[in-house]
Specification:
Blueprint lengths: L15 H26 L6 E5 L5 H10 L4 E6 L2 H13 L5 E5 L11 E7 L8 H10 L1 E13 L5 E2 L3 H16 L10 H7 L3 E8 L5 H13 L1 H6 L5 H15 L5 E2 L3 E8 L3
Parallel strand pairs: 1-2, 1-4, 2-3, 4-5
Antiparallel strand pairs: 5-9, 6-8, 7-9
Helix pairs in contact: 1-3, 1-7, 5-9, 7-9
Length: 272
């Protein structure tokens, strides 16, 4: 998740260098499903792609490799620190067909026309996701494809039952809601595409559980939303620290099972 398309005061997850390190873990968790999703959506060499809410650039890097030297990728985000890190990493990986731009998707008009636009874990943080889907659609060439993925936090599970996991889900969901977003937006994605003129909208559901990185994402995310939770008055610092400690204890417990949120993927094309 990242901060393109909303004011920093709205975005609940810590940014900057610490936020980038969390996104590395998230990228490892999500990469296999994202690569499969892009393949289903028809990614191919030579495409011009936009990665909206690119964060540290992990998906942008994969897009750049998939479209090859005859294609191009533009990554946009509002966190300049993450973008600087992404630019340096792109140079280290010798990816010359990629560009990172600082912008807010809610207030910036997209001038270029793209063959494919990708938005992962972005729309759930926005107060008007339908308007953003419409804007992303306007940036597509006729026949272009919008590829989205977002969360449904109602389907977290763990075994044995852990009150700290339940409290994390509650705090994440309520904090996003108070900032104007919807942590359970995922199932609405196909309808958002259809109501904004996308055809042949398709969907897929992914939920990962119990790998080391999936387990680690839960306490990492709780730590990353702590300041927003405090600001909204949903918990005290003492309670937050206790929840974080119990989450780390849970993932170290032999035999315990912990999932991530259900992730809904949806993709569709604009009129040719």
């Amino acid at each position: 998740m990242n901060g393109a398309g909303l004011e920093r005061s709205q975005y609940i997850i810590r940014g900057g260098v610490a936020g980038r390190e969390r996104l590395r873990v998230l990228a490892r968790v999500a990469r296999p499903a994202t690569l499969q999703l892009l393949e289903r959506a028809g990614i191919r060499p030579g495409m011009i792609c936009l990665d909206a809410g690119c964060g540290g650039g992990d998906v942008s890097f994969d897009l750049a490799r998939l479209v090859g030297p005859t294609g191009k990728v533009v990554g946009i985000d509002m966190d300049e620190i993450k973008l600087d890190i992404a630019r340096n990493e792109a140079a280290q990986q010798q990816l010359e067909n990629i560009e990172f731009r600082h912008c807010d998707i809610c207030t910036t008009e997209l001038q270029e026309q793209f063959d494919l636009v990708h938005a992962r874990f972005l729309l759930s943080h926005l107060p008007n996701p339908s308007a953003t889907v419409a804007k992303l659609g306007s940036a597509l060439r006729p026949g272009g494809m919008l590829v989205t993925a977002d969360t449904d936090f109602r389907d977290f599970f763990c075994e044995p039952p852990c009150p700290a996991v339940s409290r994390f889900v509650e705090l994440y969901t309520e904090t996003i809601q108070l900032r104007g977003g919807n942590a359970n937006l995922g199932p609405r994605l196909p309808q958002l595409l259809k109501e904004n003129g996308f055809h042949n909208a398709q969907m897929n559901v992914v939920q990962q559980a119990n790998t080391d990185d999936v387990r680690l994402m839960v306490p990492l995310t709780m730590e990353s939303i702590s300041e927003a939770v405090l600001a909204e008055g949903l918990a005290t610092r003492q309670e937050i620290e206790q929840v974080v400690a119990e989450l780390y204890e849970f993932i170290r417990t032999p035999g315990s099972v912990l999932s991530g949120p259900r992730v809904v993927e949806a993709w569709g094309s604009i009129d040719a």
